[in-house]
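Q: What structure does this chain adopt?
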Amino acid sequence: MANESAPQLGNLWHDKFYALIRDSLGLDGAKDISSRDLLWNLLHLQNDSDLLEEVENSIKGRNVVVFGAGPSLESDLTGLLSFLREKKPTIVSSDGAAEALLVRDVDSRIIVSDLDSCSEGTLKKYSESETVFAHAHGDNIELIKKIVPRLGRKTLGTTQVASRLPIRNFGGFTDGDRACYVTCNFDPSSVIIAGMDFGRVEGSYSVNRYSDSPNPKRQTKLLWGKKSLEYLISIYPETKFYNVTKFGLQIEGTVRASYDRFS
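A:
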């Protein structure tokens, strides 16, 4: 992994976006730091170099499909199913998207999650057999306390503030765009984006399973996620980005593609 100790993309993302997003959404920067430090307390004894190497080997130079959990997810999964089963690209799922894949008997190689949509059982399963990137932010401190101690050894920690190794800022804000940043830190050949609508309607697999209250800032968060992803694409010209999201907004810098392109 290039620049293992402090991912370059995470530094670029933090300098460009963090303060703007924090101020726009009224985030508590001190709580973001506290959440990172809590995750550090749980994971700091981990020697993650072998795990990072495994992730790199599964992504570097390969075609990667990154699934968001938007309303297009199930349509996109159906359209890509033969490609996933026959060509076996590396699959990265953002949070609850992993559940939709499991319904179709499709396994994720990596799950990128802030712990609120994917079930604890699924996170535990993949943290033992594949890799889970567990994210710390100011609003999920209680979930970190509840879930992370139960996860397996294949758990890596992420943050949206400065890295505190082994907790790293790989870049990205929402689970969807952060999954793309995590992927690009390991040099894929191409990234196929699916289920990433960035629209006003929430996907059934993106619902917070621990809260019944709608998030009034959800749309603003998604707009920042889209800007964040478009920035990644603009600074990563060596990777081809395709967008197959059926009902989603156009993502600047991607090639809009049909499912048939990959069959």
